[in-house]
């Protein structure tokens, strides 16, 4: 008998091979660069608190996202969508985005940067069925990272349109499995996401973090369990401790 478990062998493989294989294909780890310099004169801009923007999952009053796969959604006219991110964005974090419920596209976004997500070259941007206006959605892929929304931009003279919420709401509360740890697109390939998205006509949020316990105790680096942390906007990440203070524990203005 070799002294290795299967998991250890898999863990060693990337050191040897250098590429990650997924279903026999090389996994993509470089994504299109969407960063661009905004010329404010050609855009109509909305603040992060615009009532046309619907936020899913946990976002705080500074429009900073928390937990797994938080997102936003709005309708837009024209064929351009850009977003300026605030300085609390995790620099380089991978986000998924899409229009009209089509396939997710992925790009890394930057702290204090503006990114162009939709332009005349975007596949499907001229479709007007079944959505008119088209919807734009964005979700953060990794539970430990987040974005801060500063502004949303559409082409000059165009506008954002509020989309009516789905008839059903689902919140998945969990740990690594629900948050998508070790899956290809993390939160966007977790079972929590698959359940929420698969149900259709459902607003879903995933209040999950790897290693967190249901009982309020220190588990795998999470100082508090869901019995406590679920009542707070932010999760148990290092990011939360930097922003709100405390030992990996975020209590907005309250002490832990
Ligand atoms: C958004 O925030 C600004 C400045 O804080 C405030 O003046 C405005 O009324 C807010 N808008 C909405 C729709 O809440
Ligand atoms: C973001 O900017 C605000 C206001 O300038 C500042 O107080 C805060 O420390 C900055 N945060 C980071 C992570 O740089
Ligand atoms: C983009 O995100 C992926 C997934 O987190 C990461 O592996 C990659 O290094 C990031 N790329 C950049 C340029 O930040």
TrEMBL record:
Taxonomic lineage per UniProt? Eukaryota, Fungi, Dikarya, Ascomycota, Pezizomycotina
Q: Which named protein is this?
A: SGNH hydrolase-type esterase domain-containing protein
Q: Which residues form the signal peptide?
A: 1-18
- InterPro entries assigned: PCW_deacetylase/CE (IPR052762), SGNH_hydro_sf (IPR036514)
* Entry keyword set: Signal
Superkingdom of this protein's organism: Eukaryota
């Amino acid at each position: 008998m070799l002294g290795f478990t299967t998991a250890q062998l898999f863990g060693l493989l990337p050191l040897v091979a250098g590429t990650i294989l997924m279903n026999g294909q090389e996994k993509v780890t470089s994504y299109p660069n969407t960063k661009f310099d905004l010329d404010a004169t050609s855009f109509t801009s909305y603040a992060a608190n615009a009532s046309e923007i619907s936020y899913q999952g946990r976002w705080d009053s500074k429009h900073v996202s928390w937990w797994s796969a938080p997102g936003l959604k709005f309708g837009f006219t024209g064929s351009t969508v850009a977003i300026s991110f605030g300085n609390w964005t995790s620099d380089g974090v991978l986000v998924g985005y899409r229009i009209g419920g089509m396939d997710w596209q992925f790009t890394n976004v930057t702290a204090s940067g503006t990114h162009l997500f939709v332009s005349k070259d975007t596949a499907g941007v001229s479709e007007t069925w079944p959505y008119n206006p088209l919807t734009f959605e964005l979700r953060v892929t990794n539970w430990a990272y987040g974005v801060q929304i500063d502004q949303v931009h559409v082409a000059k003279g165009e506008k954002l349109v509020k989309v009516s919420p789905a008839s059903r709401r689902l919140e998945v509360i969990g740990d690594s499995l629900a948050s998508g740890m070790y899956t290809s697109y993390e939160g966007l390939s977790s079972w929590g996401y698959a359940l929420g998205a698969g149900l259709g006509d459902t607003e879903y949020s995933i209040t999950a973090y790897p290693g967190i316990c249901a009982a309020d105790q220190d588990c795998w680096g999470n100082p508090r369990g869901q019995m406590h942390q679920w009542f707070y906007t932010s999760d148990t990440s290092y990011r939360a401790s930097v922003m709100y203070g405390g030992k990996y524990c975020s209590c907005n203005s309250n002490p832990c």
